[in-house]
Amino acid sequence: VLENQDLRDSIKPQKVEFHSLNLHSTLHWQPGRAREARDTVYFVQYKVYGQSMWQNKDGCWGIQNHVCDLTNETSNVQEPYYGRVKAASAGIYSNWSLSCRFTPWRETMIGPPTVTVVRDNKSIKLKLQAPRSPYKRKRGSKIPMTNYYDLLYQVFIINNLLDEQYRVLVYEGKDKVIKIQDLRPGISYCVMAKTYVPILDRSSAYSSRQCTVL
Predict the structure, then answer these.
(1) In CATH, what number is assigned to the domain containing residue 30?
(2) Which intervals hold domain Interferon/interleukin receptor (predicted)?
(3) How many structural domains are present in the chain?
(4) pLDDT tens per residue across span 143-199
(5) Which of 84, 106, 128 is the C-terminal boundary of a domain?
(6) 214 vs 211: CA distance, rounded Å
């Protein structure tokens, strides 16, 4: 019995936590401290905070992965959720390992906007598109993150003659089309943008650099 208890403890999943980007939310965990046996499989359940019943996640029942997509199960984004995972090896089952409480709306990371650059004589025109959530409208298009948050765009310009770190904030606001004027011809400019969520005081990573020579 003790041997079984040791095995049960040693295969118990560690560090069960939600990761979420643009409301696409997955549960991650690490194998127990035992060198993972080849036959170790995992079982995932989830529930809304306050409910007594746990739900099985069918697609993550007896899997060998260490990640389970719970995007559809956490689609009521203001609700707090829990996830839990147990392991089985050689017919022995571990106890459940529980995640922290996870509220998608509050905890998801927001991605940067998509930036399209159109250059003109002495100006650059930028088209910004908010990141999209994984959830779809009835017609099938993905719902933009602006449906869930009041988002601002922050646009930075780098003059390549100057130091790479010299990023100037040239715009902050909600406009989807922005014109940056009075730029010098023949100089390479790079543009990057962030999404900013004022209510959470949280910024995205930078978008990829878009460079152009006027």
Answers:
(1) 2.60.40.10
(2) 108-212
(3) 2
(4) 999 999 999 999 999 876 665 667 888 999 999 999 998 888 888 888 999 999 999
(5) 106
(6) 10
Q: Return mean pLDDT, the chain.
A: 91
Please say if the pLDDT value at position 3 is more than 90: no
The identity of residue 9, as a single letter, is D
**Residue-wise pLDDT tens digits, 49-79:** 999 999 999 999 999 999 999 999 999 999 9
Lookup: tokens for 2: 């003790």
Q: Which of 106, 133, 156 is the last residue of a domain?
A: 106
The one-character DSSP state at 3 is H
| Residue 86 domain boundaries | 1-106
Residues 78 and 157 placed together within one structural domain of the fold: no
Long-range contacts of 187-190 (CB under 8 A, 24+ apart): 187/159, 187/160, 187/161, 187/213, 187/214, 188/159, 188/160, 188/161, 188/212, 188/213, 189/124, 189/157, 189/158, 189/159, 189/160, 189/213, 189/214, 190/157, 190/158, 190/160
Considering the domain architecture, whether residues 2 and 97 belong to the same structural domain is answered as yes
Q: Is 7 found in the same domain as 98?
A: yes
Residue 12 CA, distance from chain mean position? 26
